[in-house]
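Internal tracking record. Fields below are filled automatically when a chain is submitted to the structure queue. Please do not edit lines marked as system-generated. If the sequence contains nonstandard residues, flag them in the REMARKS field before resubmitting.
Queue: standard
Priority: normal
Entity type: single polypeptide chain
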Amino acid sequence: MPQHRTVLIIPTGIGAAIGGYAGDALPVARAIAQVTDCLITHPNVLNGAQLYWPLANAQYVEGYGLDQFAAGRWQLRPVHQNRIGLVLDRGIEDSLRWRHLQAADAARATLGLDLTPYAVTDAPLGVTLQTASTGATWGTLTQPDSLLRAVEKLIAAGATAIAVVARFPDDVGSAALSAYRQGQGVDPLAGAEAVISHLVVRTFRIPCAHAPALAPLPLEPTLSPRSAAEEIGYTFLSCVLAGLSRAPQLVEAGTTAAETIRAEQVDAVIVPATASGGSAVLSLSASAQIIAVNDNSTTLQVSPAALGIKATIVNSYLEAIGLIAAQRAGVSDRALGAQIQPLQPLP
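SYSTEM-GENERATED OUTPUT FOLLOWS
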């Protein structure tokens, strides 16, 4: 029987009601993984700071790599294990750097992950944070070349995936951070994180994910459960290393190896209904069923209808999971309602 493949997309930095916080889309991914043979998704969905969940049939694909895959330029080659190269920003203080190195050693000792020797950038990366008029977040690096030089050294040392830890600005008193800790607003770090991983994947075509280095926050007794995963340790690195350990390799289109996954093999794409304008959705809309979820509101207002995309609109991820289960079983969703219209002739 053919494999059923589902792409789950929840864009980062747009205040998604589900998936806009610390690993709060993991329950959605876990449930979808049970009704599809292969779940293709990205770090924003699977990362939960200190928390993560192993999904044997999930492919952890960075956002730029996912866009290239969806466009048919790259294919995904599943692996048993990657050798991860760790990049540490020279701007990280000594004590905070040791916390991240200890997290990496813990992942080696308890999860059996394979890491190369780590690299420290030759200059502080200089992360800055920005917020767009829509409320979406983004950021810049003042020293991107320093990051690329460090990655190049790690690849030469045998790394097949890259974890980056950059020092992010501490903004303890900001209204944006306060709202995020209460389960509101937009993750102030997410957009800048995407810029970092996109740069590495675009330059080297290698799996990459990022974990920000931040000073620990003061205790907040009224913390939202959706934000709590980021407050139970000194580092967010654990989930990144776990995800990258089995992230598929990104290979040029045209590879004939039987185990590679190609865009035309995707059966369904699940996306927030108001965030349907991403590159991957546009590319896959010609061949896969687009399922748009109304409940997952975002700061955007880009519906499938506004772009002329044919989509099935559902209210919740529970409905989306039902559609996937029916599709995988070869059952028309029209047959699951109380009323079925008589068959009509062609006009």
